[in-house]
Amino acid sequence: DREIAVLKRMGIEFRTGVALGRDITLDELERQFHAVFLGLGAWKSRRLGVPGEDHPAVFQGIEFLAQVKTGRPPKLPAQVAVIGGGNTAIDAARTARRLGAEVVIVYRRSRKEMPAEPEEIQEAEEEGVKFEFLAQPLAFLTEGEKLRGIHCQRMQLSEPDASGRRRPVPIPGAEFVVEVEAAIVAVGQEPHFSFLGEMGVALNKDGTIQADPETGQTSRPKVFAGGDAVTGPAIAIEAIAAGRRAALAIDRFLRGLPLKGPEAYAHKKPEVTRKDLGEVSEAKRVHPRVLPPEERVKSFKP
């Protein structure tokens, strides 16, 4: 809110509730403005594609967190499973604990391969979240309006592939059921704007926008893009950096200058050596104070 207030004071106008493709087109925007930047993100939850996923007791991670954040948390039963191993999955699990549920995270790789932040995983464990590693959901087991469990396949890790990552492969005959009454699927996010292709913006096979990595310019010269809409889900600072690069390129575009070139991006990181720093001493990392786990799970206080 503070950042938005700063932008408003700078004279930036906000038009909320306006969706590209529904309320306005790129042609209309280009008629009104000399350049357009698309920072659409990757907000569509990736699906598992298994039977029972559309059951009312199966929630999508991003949508679940948005409901809680906006004061409309769903009523959860006593036993909840979270599918996934990233930060969204951990956030969903810790949120479900604060809503009073017993939670187990089902992840198809081992704990070592979890992409979530290690401290988040540790704090979730301290708060009573259980983990079912090397398990791949095959189907959600439903009875009418009730979910009674998740039919899972036990996995094992193969030898490292060319990228160095070990791929999970099924163990024949090793199937089991995780007994839960609700599930939250958090296996990643993807773009949700296929309509851009119809507007003349070239897309990659995964649905992301094709954009120059240095300038953000798309197949439509007046249209630039950056962030998760281009890279797929990544971290906030990468989106911020993409916005900065695109802003510099748009400035040059509007002035009729070449978008690329040695003079286009003037910032150079200075070379700093240990000698330049003078006398320095090693210090242990200072860890922020946190509430005890039994207190943390009672509220959403930091």
Structure characterization notes:
The chain has 302 residues and is an alpha/beta fold. The protein contains ten helices and twelve strands. β4 (79-83), α4 and β5 form a beta-alpha-beta unit. α3 (61-69) packs across α4 (87-98). The longest helix is centred in the C-terminal third of the chain and has 19 residues, at 236-254. The model has no long low-confidence stretch (mean pLDDT 93).
Quick synopsis:
The chain has 302 residues and is α/β, with parallel strands linked by helices. The protein has helices spanning 2-9, 26-32, 61-69, 87-98, 118-126, 195-198, 228-231, 236-254, 274-277, 293-296, and strands spanning 36-38, 44-45, 58-60, 79-83, 102-106, 130-132, 135-143, 146-160, 166-178, 182-185, 189-190, 223-225.
Helical fraction equals: 25-40%
Chain-averaged pLDDT:
93
Biggest β-sheet: strands ordered side by side in the sheet: 3-10-4-5-6
Spatial extent as radius of gyration? 23 Å
User: Structural class of the secondary elements?
Assistant: alpha/beta
Number of discrete helical segments: 10
The biggest beta sheet, please?
5 strands, parallel
Strand content: 15-25%
Distance between the termini: 18 Å
What is the assembly state of the chains in this entry?
single chain
The 3D shape can be described as globular
What is the number of beta strands? 12
Q: Write the H/E string, N to C.
A: HHEEEHEHEHEEEEEEHEHHHH
Stretches where pLDDT is under 50 for at least 5 consecutive residues are none
